[in-house]
UniProtKB/TrEMBL annotation:
Highest taxon above the source species: Eukaryota
Domain spans labelled MmgE/PrpD N-terminal: 10-244
A Gene Ontology term for the protein's cellular component: mitochondrion
A single MF term (Gene Ontology): aconitate decarboxylase activity
Protein name: Aconitate decarboxylase 1
Organism: Tetraodon nigroviridis (Spotted green pufferfish)
Entry-linked SUPFAM superfamilies: 2-methylcitrate dehydratase PrpD
């Protein structure tokens, strides 16, 4: 059944939202998202998948060019700069996660920064911030058209569906498109949406975010040139509704009357402490607590003491990987992350490298793991929990449960810890001047007159990084 006016309302809102609509809460949260995205993106420029897509993208040229993050003297056409930077953001599965489930920032920010650098008149930091929030808002609204979207995904990777729409909306806003053109940008983007979840835990998964951000940018540019799509793309079950089994769209209203309530203001994002699927954070925190209980009771932690490790997690096939053989599979394995936390008393970036992943002690631990999926443990990032129970050969049992990990929207990272995370990642690529410059610009972005200064700092690499070999990534 055709529902009238929904797509038009989105086009009108994308066009009509102004910086006056931004609230202090939205500004604060979105600046945190931007800083974290740049940090994990810079770290991601050291991965194999990033360098492969960079090599591919360097065969394309155009009159316009945009910054490749972490590269002092390398530019790409805006479309490909958005692509490679988007891949970098998701290359280690380290980027922010929202509820309903998606990675909102990586699909929007690379397109905006690439587009901003190519415009005849550079937008201000506040203009950039507005466009970013428009892209985030559209994703948040679209995900609420379906109850299915509230659970851990089963069929497609959400950034490939809502992310490309958010990128199109944000790019359309920065381009200053008319309401009708904004609607057409969404329609064009919808025909580039979708990526099967079967490619999760592979090197192709980061391409989902890279493709979402570049194809949304492309959709807005094509709409700017006069290409049209179905002006009711969001209204129809055969339009955007094809991605959901229970599709109930609603209008994007309230901005004209000043009654707009930003989705981001009511629902914060989660920031990751480890480079892995969000679900891994619950099981890691529970494993660390169970380990501490055992150690405090017997006075030491000896792997040979452990007879059985029981994980109680929500049902989800694509993050239940008992014997991961690649780095990307390990990022999606309840079993691996629990055992890595037990073995090392921490999980870090290096936990997923070949040497750490293939240790005999870790493989022995993995053979002791059993996974249970209790009926009441919902596959939702808002409601799930993880339990880790250790049983020793002496019959002792140690049970720990994590309901909310540090970094979740209910227990957000402090600003100090968020900035420390950014600096730790960015300093592996940028010089001190670059790290501090990006930190300062993002922290005061609403006051920045020319947003291109951000690109300048993203090029300030350290001499050590320019000379070093890239670390290997398992393929």
């Amino acid at each position: 059944m055709l529902r009238k006016g929904i797509t038009e309302s989105f086009g009108a809102a994308i066009h009509g939202l102004s910086t006056a609509h931004l609230t202090d809460g939205v500004i604060s949260r979105s600046k945190r998202m931007i800083l974290d995205t740049l940090g994990v993106g810079l770290l991601g420029t050291r991965t194999s998948v990033f360098n492969k897509v960079l090599q591919y993208s360097q065969s394309f040229t155009s009159e316009d060019s945009s910054t490749v993050w972490g590269k002092s003297s390398l530019d790409l056409p805006p479309y490909f700069a958005a692509f490679v930077n988007g891949v970098a953001v998701h290359s280690m599965d380290f980027d922010d996660t929202w509820h309903p489930a998606t990675h909102p920032s990586g699909a929007v920010l690379p397109a905006l920064l690439a587009l901003a650098e190519s415009l005849p008149q550079q937008p201000s930091g506040l203009d950039l911030l507005l466009a970013f929030n428009v892209g985030i808002e559209v994703q948040g609204r679209l995900m609420r058209f379906s109850r299915e979207a509230f659970n851990i995904p089963e069929r497609f990777h959400p950034p490939s569906v809502v992310g490309v729409m958010g990128s199109a909306a944000a790019s359309a806003k920065l381009l200053g498109l008319s309401p009708a053109q904004c609607s057409h940008a969404l329609a064009i983007a919808a025909s580039s949406a979708g990526a099967p979840l079967a490619n999760a835990a592979t090197q192709t998964k980061p391409l989902h975010v890279g493709n979402a951000t570049r194809r949304g940018l492309e959709a807005a540019q094509l709409a700017h040139m006069g290409i049209e799509g179905n002006p009711a793309i969001l209204d129809m079950d055969s339009g955007f509704g094809v991605y959901y089994k229970d599709y109930h769209p609603s209008s994007m209203a309230g901005f004209a009357s000043g009654d707009l309530k930003w989705v981001l203001e009511g629902q914060d994002v989660a920031f990751k402490r480890i480079p892995a699927h969000l679900g891994m954070h619950w099981v890691v925190d529970a494993a660390l607590e169970a380990r501490a209980q055992l150690e405090n009771t017997v006075g030491s932690f000896d792997l040979d003491q452990i007879r059985r490790i029981t994980l109680r997690v929500p049902p989800s096939k694509y993050i239940d990987c008992p014997s991961p053989s690649t780095e990307h599979q390990a990022r999606h394995s309840f079993q691996f992350n629990a055992c890595s936390a037990l073995l090392d008393n921490r999980v870090t970036v290096s936990s997923y490298c070949d040497a750490d992943r293939n240790r005999p002690a870790l493989k022995r631990l993995l053979t002791k793991v059993e996974v249970e999926t209790p009926e009441g443990n919902q596959p939702s990032f808002d409601n799930m929990y993880s339990e880790v129970e250790l049983e020793t050969h002496q019959g002792l049992r140690f049970l720990a449960r994590c309901n909310t990990f540090y970094g979740h929207w209910r227990k957000p990272l402090s600003q100090e810890d968020l900035v420390e995370k950014f600096r730790g990642h960015a300093s592996s690529v940028l010089s001190t001047e670059g790290v501090e410059g990006v930190t300062d610009v993002v922290g005061n972005i609403e006051k920045v007159k020319n947003s291109s200064i951000l690109g300048l700092y993203l090029r300030r690499t350290s001499s050590q990084h320019e000379q070093m070999c890239r670390p290997r990534e398992n393929t």
